[in-house]
Write a structure and sequence with these properties.
The complex is a heterotrimer of chains A (about 280), B (about 290) and C (about 425).
Chain A: H1 2-33, H2 54-62, H3 66-97, H4 101-112, H5 118-131, H6 138-162, H7 166-174, H8 179-208, H9 211-216, H10 224-232, H11 240-271
Chain B: H1 7-34, E1 37-39, E2 45-47, H2 51-57, H3 60-93, H4 98-110, H5 113-123, H6 130-137, H7 149-178, H8 181-189, H9 194-222, H10 226-231, H11 243-253, H12 257-290
Antiparallel strand pairs in B: 1-2
Helix pairs in contact in B: 1-12, 2-12, 3-7, 3-9, 3-11, 4-7, 7-9, 9-12, 11-12
Chain C: H1 2-20, E1 25-30, H2 32-39, H3 50-58, E2 61-66, H4 69-80, E3 89-93, H5 99-102, H6 109-114, H7 125-131, E4 140-152, H8 153-158, H9 168-177, E5 189-193, H10 200-207, H11 225-239, H12 252-260, E6 264-270, H13 274-277, E7 289-292, E8 294-295, E9 304-305, E10 308-314, H14 322-333, H15 335-343, H16 357-362, H17 366-375, H18 386-401, H19 407-423
Helix pairs in contact in C: 11-19, 18-19
């Protein structure tokens, strides 16, 4: 009897630890965004205070580029995710259904090519993008973000497609379907949830990415992280309340997305397998 | 049975490889060539052969950065492996409010890296950070991460793990969920304890997921930058500098592109060496499975 | 296939998007603060929209891009290498305008002759020298940040002191006295400065004793007795807990927060920080934090010491709108506009601006700052490896202060490492 209670207590502690570990720093941000500026870095932290929305108001008034930047972030993130999802799906199918030594080597190359630090790659890419007239457009970021995730995404797609029996392909082909139709009518519905999981990685990356946005974009396609970093880089110090407000706003859509995609994630992660 | 590749295969692979070729492969070759030159803002390129590499390998700060990177990468990858496995097992057994818990556990990954580091910096501030004061109160002494390079690297690793654990966890959890219950039932009927079930059943079947997670986590960790730059700036006295910080300072602060390119390729070499075991395992499985 | 159609549509949209932005316009690249002061964007400031008025008068669209200091310079420098630079006017800080960068900027002597800046001599010669090299005019000073000593009247009173220190020894003694725990449990550090990622404040402290890293003739003086003395004192203060324990990782925000919350009694920081320290919204001591010139040691023969960083305006060599760019620079440099921009919160580079009555009422420290500008030193950036030199200073001084090395070793090491960099041309 005691053992069972101890076990329960132990499990409860583990759950509590996981929650505290994950959530506390983030709660700090959200709570600070509605804390009056004077009390933000008090120690001991003030537990009782009157919440204020002045930081959000200041953000709205003084940083007028913020909401357009969020819109740009959304465009770039969605398009990058769609592009990489499609491209990785096709490639993942190829790696799953076909085999040869050569093919396995190209898969290895897919992974190895990711090892060069992105910042060095910007050295030739910046003048190239300028030459193509792509600087400060959404396209350049979309292409870059997609390119940087297709390696992993392809491998994830491959492992999920591996779980779908070849026989289904064969059956459909024998019924006269084209390879494309097999892909989109047969395979796609079965791995949709795996695709969502991979897509989430890309979306979060694109949503928060800073380095490429900084280098390739200035005004028209300015994304949210660029703006938020400027709130932090004030020559007269950071306006913390405003920063936290901005971060909270920028953070909420991603959380909403994760919550919304929950069912795909839990179920999707069940349907796919990485047994290899 | 997997088929031998035909024209359809290459068509399917074309988009991915075209993208990679244009954005990564060709620029990477240019960077390799750049590493054999001297170049800076607005100057052309001047061929110098291996001089940049000689400079780097002769710089004691480079070796310190390499050591620090090696330490941090290993600390981060293996901690995340353990924690990720632990979380995956806990979730697989069943947690209360699974959707809520999953959301909470994924939160650190959703937040921008820069903000994450900033948060930890504040929470670990020696005078006013909630975490550091709590540690002090618990009698664990003053956590002096800005003075002691060892403690600095520890905090950097902790922050990196905090931020990226959801990534590793998600991949491992996927693998864990895919193992059918029937396998566990069989094990239980054979009298296996939960620990034995984990070692004999879970772990071996998770190896492909583990390989994938570790290779990519290793790649990302090798170029760890923000955690160091925003926390200690590589200090005190450049003692917590990692390769990505070294690269940034030499290449972009001081505008020495040749050295930056060379450091970049040295990092590729380092990543490949460190991941070689796992890459080989993955390649072996792909060929085996598909043969 | 479908994705190509989508990609094509996206590409077309993006290209047209980009095209729209290229109407007759001037692109300015700067830190947000420059946009704020040039356009009066911060509510409550009275200078007005100087840049905006100019744009309207010339019928030009003003595209202002902002970024943080390091990213902004990185961006600008990459652009300088392009055949056509998107940026027309940029605001750069003196430590980044090394000779190899100046070579990529438009020389301004001819423009100055054609349509000169009004009262160009009203800008101090040492400011002009501080941002230009090789005798070629490529940068026009716009803003300065000069260090002063901020002190918290209330904390001083709590420890029985009623005024700022008058010389270096007093400053050190006060700092020791002001490291205490307040009645409410807050720990106070006697002195704080941005020692983690900047050099200016620490060099200002060392300059109290006459120590200079590199003098205006490019002689490296890192191992002078004054430098060793200054570093030794700092190391002692650190050991005693007068300086914060996280000395090596303090950033600008840490300094500001510490002063605002009363966790530091004195701070070496630019004069302009006064507004932030006394901001009733964020500070617990509005109206109680004053600023004076940093008191010098008697041995230097000076009353006060100061160091300064200068922001200036430049035109990239491959800018597409040089005439308009120069006109904007001229307009922003006009004496009357300098005052207006100062009222918006800028540190004006014209001493005459400090005579303005409005400015005097708005900023109680104008007299002190005017005095400080007269003696302010810059760290020369007229050699290509000046950023490396600064990094070496930061590294070695940190090591000396937190006790990893003796001050003598650190000073000698600095000298040994920086000298070849200065000589390298």
């Amino acid at each position: 009897m005691v053992e069972r209670h101890l076990a329960r207590l132990g499990r409860g502690l583990i759950y509590a630890a996981m929650i505290v570990w994950s959530a506390v720093p983030i709660l700090f941000i959200v709570v600070s965004s509605i804390t009056p500026a004077q009390m933000i870095f008090q120690f001991p932290p003030a537990l009782v205070f009157t919440p204020t929305f002045e930081h959000y108001l200041t953000l709205w008034r003084q940083w007028e580029g913020f909401f357009p930047a969020l819109a740009n972030s959304l465009i770039v993130a969605v398009c990058a995710t769609l592009l990489s999802a499609l491209v990785s799906f096709l490639a993942g199918y190829a790696y799953s259904r076909y085999a040869s030594r050569w093919l396995a080597s190209t898969a290895l190359y897919l992974i190895a090519i990711r090892m060069l630090p992105p910042i060095v790659v910007t050295l030739p890419l910046f003048p190239l993008a300028d030459y193509l007239g792509l600087n400060d457009t959404h396209v350049v970021l979309i292409v870059l973000y997609a390119a940087f995730w297709v390696s992993l995404y392809t491998m994830i797609m491959k492992t999920f497609i591996d779980e779908v029996p070849d026989e289904l392909d064969e059956a459909a082909l024998m019924d006269g379907a084209s390879r494309l139709q097999v892909l989109f009518r047969v395979i796609f519905p079965l791995i949709l949830q795996g695709m969502v999981a991979g897509g989430l990685f890309v979306f979060v990356y694109a949503w928060n990415e800073f380095l490429f946005a900084l280098i390739f974009v200035s005004q028209e396609a300015q994304t949210a992280p660029l703006l938020i970093s400027q709130v932090m880089g004030g020559v007269d110090g950071t306006e913390w309340g405003v920063l936290f407000a901005g971060v909270t706003i920028q953070f909420l859509p991603v959380i909403a997305l994760v919550v919304f995609l929950q069912r795909y994630l839990i179920a999707g992660l069940t349907a796919g397998s990485v047994k290899g | 049975m997997r088929k031998t590749p035909d024209i359809t295969t290459w068509l399917l692979l074309a988009p991915v490889h075209a993208l990679l070729l244009a954005v990564l492969a060709i620029p990477s070759l240019y960077v390799l060539w750049l590493s054999l030159n001297i170049s800076s803002y607005g100057t052309g390129v001047e061929f110098v052969g291996l001089a940049n590499y000689v400079t780097i390998f002769g710089d004691s700060y480079f070796w310190r950065a390499l050591l620090n990177t090696f330490i941090v990468v290993n600390a981060v990858v293996y901690s995340e492996l353990l924690l990720g496995l632990g979380f995956a097992v806990v979730f697989a057994r069943g947690v209360p409010f699974p959707r809520l818990m999953l959301g909470i556990v994924l939160m650190p990954y959703a937040i921008s890296e820069v903000v994450a580091v900033l948060m930890w910096k504040i929470l670990m501030d020696p005078s006013v950070g909630a975490f550091s004061r709590a540690l002090e109160a618990m009698g664990l002494g003053l956590f002096n991460w800005s003075v002691s390079p060892v403690q600095g690297l520890v905090l950097i690793s902790i922050i990196s793990v905090w931020h990226n654990l959801p990534f590793t966890f998600l991949l491992l959890y996927a693998g864990r969920l895919a193992i059918p219950d029937s396998v566990y039932e069989a094990a239980r009927m054979d009298g296996a304890t939960p620990w034995q079930a984990f070692v004999r059943v879970t772990f071996p079947l998770l190896i492909p997921a583990i390989l994938l997670a570790m290779i990519f986590r290793l790649i990302f960790a090798f170029r760890l930058f923000s955690e160091v730059w925003l926390l200690t700036k590589g200090g005190p006295a450049r003692l917590t500098e990692v390769l990505a910080v070294y690269l940034y300072e030499q290449g972009f602060r001081y505008g020495d592109f040749g050295v930056a390119a060379a450091t970049g390729w040295v990092m590729v070499l380092g990543s490949v060496l460190l991941a070689s075991f796992y890459l080989y395992q993955m390649h072996r499985r792909m060929v085996k499975h598909n043969g | 296939m479908m994705q190509y159609k989508v990609a094509g549509a996206l590409l077309a949209a993006a290209v047209s998007f980009g095209a729209m932005a290229q109407d007759v316009g001037i692109t300015v690249l700067s830190h947000k603060v420059h946009e704020n002061v040039s356009r009066g964007l911060v509510p409550g400031t009275t200078g007005g929209d100087v840049a905006g008025e100019w744009a309207k008068e010339k019928n030009v669209q003003l595209n202002w891009t902002t970024a943080n200091i390091a990213p902004m310079h990185d961006k600008l420098f990459r652009e300088l290498a392009l055949r056509e630079t998107p940026t027309d006017v940029a605001f750069v800080i003196n430590k980044f305008t090394v000779p190899k960068i100046s070579a990529l900027l438009e020389p301004l002597d001819d423009w100055q002759k054609k349509s000169p800046i009004e009262d160009f001599d009203g800008i101090p010669a040492n400011f002009i020298e501080g941002v230009n090299s090789n005798g070629v005019l490529t940068a026009i000073p716009f803003r300065h940040a000069t260090t002063g000593l901020h002190w918290n009247e209330e904390l001083f009173k709590e420890q029985g002191l009623d005024g700022p220190p008058k010389n270096a020894d007093e400053l050190v003694a006060y700092a020791r006295k002001l490291s205490y725990t307040r009645p409410d449990g807050t720990r106070v550090n006697g002195l704080i400065m941005n020692s983690g990622d900047e050099h200016l404040a620490v060099l200002s402290f060392l300059n109290m004793y006459g120590a200079v890293l590199i003098d205006q003739d490019l002689n490296v003086k890192a191992d002078s007795p004054e430098m060793i003395k200054g570093l030794t004192i700092l190391a002692e203060l650190y050991k005693e807990g007068v300086l914060p324990t996280n000395y090596a990782s303090i950033s600008i925000d840490d300094v500001i927060t510490a002063v605002q919350k009363g966790r530091a009694a004195m701070a070496i920081d630019p004069f302009a920080r006064y507004t932030v320290y006394n901001n009733p919204k964020a500070s617990l001591f509005p109206g109680k934090v004053h600023v004076v010139g940093i008191p010098a040691d008697a041995s230097t023969g000076r009353d006060i010491t100061a160091m300064t960083e200068i922001w200036s305006m430049v035109i990239p060599k491959h800018s597409q709108h040089k005439e308009l760019s120069w006109d904007l620079i001229r307009t922003l440099s006009k004496p009357e506009n300098t005052v207006r921009i100062a009222l918006n919160g800028n540190g004006p580079v014209r001493p005459s601006a400090y005579e303005d009555a409005q400015l005097k009422t708005q900023l109680p420290y104008t007299a002190e700052e005017a005095k400080a500008i007269q003696v302010a030193l810059t760290v020369p950036s007229s050699f290509n490896d000046s950023l490396q030199a600064l990094a070496i200073f930061r590294e070695e001084s940190q090591a000396a202060v937190i006790g990893l090395k003796s001050p003598e070793d650190a000073a000698k090491s600095m000298q040994r490492r920086i000298e070849p960099l200065v000589k390298k041309k």
